[in-house]
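anyone seen this seq b4? input:
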Amino acid sequence: MPSNRAPSNATPRPPAIRVGRLDTADRVRRELARVYKDARCRRIEAGDASKLASVLGLIVRIVETSDIERRLDALEARIADRPSRRAA
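predicted toks r here
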């Protein structure tokens, strides 16, 4: 009968890391602060923190760009809905 247990020489899996939603610049900022704090407290290696910070930097740029696009679309829609003010 096969066993469901991992072999005794298997590398143990690290605990799952929960990351909150990264859908706003503020949430990304908080995650970046957490990564920094973890690196300073030596819970993660500095090299790993650097890589995570780079990815978070990309994510925040994407979030900010998406927000600007959404706001610009809303402004353009408002302008398109306004009646023309030109004199006939």
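The radius of gyration is 24 Å. The helical segments are 25-40, 46-81. kinda curious what u guys think
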